[in-house]
Amino acid sequence: MSFFLLIFKSAFRNRLRTLLTSVGVAIAIVAFLFLRTFIGAWYGGVENSASDRIIVRNKISITFELPLNYVDKVRQIVGDKGQVSYENWFGAVNPKDERGFFANMAADPEVFKMYPEIVIPPDQWKAYAEDRMGAIIGSHLAEKYGWKVGDKITLRGTIYPGDYDMNVRAIYTSTSRAVDEATMWFHWKYFNERQSETRKDHVGLIIIKVNDASQSTAVGQAIDKTFASSAAETRTESEKQFQLEFLSMASALISAIQVISGVVLVILMLILANTLAMATRERTTEYAVMRAIGFQQRHIVGMVVGEGFVIALTGAVLGVALATPILKFFAQLFEKQMGGFLGNFDLELRAVVLAVVVALALGMAAAALPARRAGKLKIVDALRRVE
Amino acid sequence: MSDDNLEAGKNGGVAAGAAKKAIIKLRGVRKVYKRDQQEIPVLEGIDLDIPEGSFEALMGPSGSGKTTLLNLIAGIDNVSAGTVEVAGTDLTRLSEGELATWRSRNIGFIFQFYNLLPVFTAFQNVELPLLLTNLSKAERKKRVETALRVVGLEDRMDHYPRQLSGGQEQRVAIARAIVTDPTILVADEPTGDLDRKSAEEILKLLDLLHRKFNKTIVMVTHDPAAAQSAEIIRRLDKGQLLADGAAGPFR
Ligand SMILES: Nc1ncnc2c1ncn2[C@@H]1O[C@H](COP(=O)(O)OP(=O)(O)OP(=O)(O)O)[C@@H](O)[C@H]1O
Ligand SMILES: [Mg+2]
Asked: A236-270 burial, b if ≥16 CB within 10 A, otherwise e?
């Protein structure tokens, strides 16, 4: 017999109730881990972004373009400090899967020099370079739609309406999390040909890879200053900033998920508080007996808090055990349905530790009120209350 | 000495136990409960001396304040006025925490409904008060076994309360009360929930603790037969102690 046994036996006294509470906690933990992992995966690419790449775009918004002649002007400003290239977010879909999302860009061939993490077999690269209607696709995308090198495919434009026929010429893999394996690139020239006179010769993004990453800020400032009072002002930022901004288009969604993950924790705490309140109320007479025998208020408080801890721990262990296979299942599902966009949907140790620590802390916090009430009870009144 | 003065009034207790030092000494004790502005007096002008090693019964009609008086003596309730000195300590001067510590060393509690913790075995229930001491596990075990032997339940150590009869449960509760070897035992209707035979066993046990182990016992009871086990019977009525209780027949 020890204080630990005292707490443990109390916690598992009403086994069904404790079990149900633990399952409730476990489900909350699974939900919490799912949402944290979702957010983590969402921003996954950002954390791995390169610091030597900077991106020039229209100051008004990402959806506005820049005149093609800006590219040359930017080249002049950058000089021998780095390389310059450009691309357009094409935003088309596979007509056979109109709701399926994947990133597709109309790119100047120089773009690939900026992304050493993109690996393309040399013969495939050659085939791509030589085919005006060629396309390069990521290995995940190839798997998703069953596309192979040599296939003729059609994309349906949404931002730039019309059907665009292309030939798959290369399949790339990526060596870094900064670049997913579910994107498609095709020739900017082909894209430009298809645009109406008014829309022709406009680029979405100008990409610069500076030789010395510490120069990034200075180069960016010089560019923005040059176009400061022109018809299309620019905004130049690091790849990381840019990606964050791009993702922030979905920031309301992410904020909502953040809030929900907080709400899940509040629910977890209320489940625990409810159970502890019931359990301690039932034991009023026993606490009074213990206090009469000589136990101090702090002993009683400690017992109730300890009970909250034990139940939360049981739930947390159960939750983590359940989360592992469940998240694995969703990782495969997302991989299939969303390509690499939610790549890295892996349960991170950091999230697990956070969930367990938070659950334990909330377990003890949930015990605060019941513990206080149990500690403060008047012995004589509680003893009078005969069952 | 006025041993034969049956009209000793409120100080009767002093007379009865004058030969021995009073271990429980109440002076001018008053207890009122406040309920929405109104004061309800429960005990009034109680002067009481209980000598060390005596076995006393407290009788009186329901609502006369017996439990309240016992609670004051045991240090789980506070007086409204007056002083309570028990085992050499003025209880009215102690804080909650100090009172708890004091109780753990000086008082053994026996309740009408035994109040054992249902999830623990007889052994664990008896061991409970020892968790507050620095005794080693081995020492605790020895003490628990001794206490259970005294109440005759050494063979029921691993039984849970629900596996015991009412009389056995009360004996476990008594073992729990004596395991720390307190000088004073307080019992509020310890036989109130038991059949005659079990009640007699409990009373015999209390008598043994009183005579062989020299415990001071204060027992509240409704049952005149039970009260006969005590050396002295005191009567409360409407919050006042009546004239010295006639001593029960000495055996
Ligand atoms: N917390 C309280 N608030 C108000 N009145 C109380 C409280 N506790 C006890 N009383 C009153 O004090 C009086 C004495 O109660 P007490 O329990 O001491 O009587 P008792 O002699 O033990 O009675 P019984 O034989 O029924 O157990 C009763 O009138 C009771 O209603
Ligand atoms: Mg009573």
From this structure: bbbbbbbbebeeeeeeeebeebeeebeebbebbbe
**Domain count across chain B:** 1
- Average pLDDT on A178-198 reads 90
Locate the domains of chain A by residue range.
3-46+251-384, 65-231
Indicate the pTM of the whole model.
Answer: 0.74
* Confidence tier at B2 by pLDDT (50, 70, 90): very low
Q: Is B42 contained in some domain?
A: yes
Asked whether the ipTM of the predicted complex exceeds the cut of 0.90, the reply is no
In-domain check, residue B124? yes
Q: Are B116 and B173 in contact (CB under 8 A)?
A: yes
The reply to whether B39 falls in a domain is yes
**Band of the pLDDT at A125, cuts 50, 70, 90?**
very high
In a domain, B249, yes or no: no
State the smallest CA–CA distance between residue A280 and chain B in angstroms.
Answer: 14
Mutate to test the pocket of ligand 1, among B32, B44, B66 (most ligand atoms within 8 A of CB): B66
Ligand 1: which atom is nearest the Cα of residue B35? 4
Q: Which domain, by its residues, includes B54?
A: 3-241
CATH number at residue B21: 3.40.50.300
Per-residue pLDDT of A275-308, as tens digits, reads 999 999 999 999 999 999 999 999 999 999 999 9
- Whole-angstrom CA distances from A90 to A54, A203, B189, B242, B249 are 20, 11, 89, 102, 108
Instruction: Please give the mean pLDDT across all residues of chain A.
Output: 89
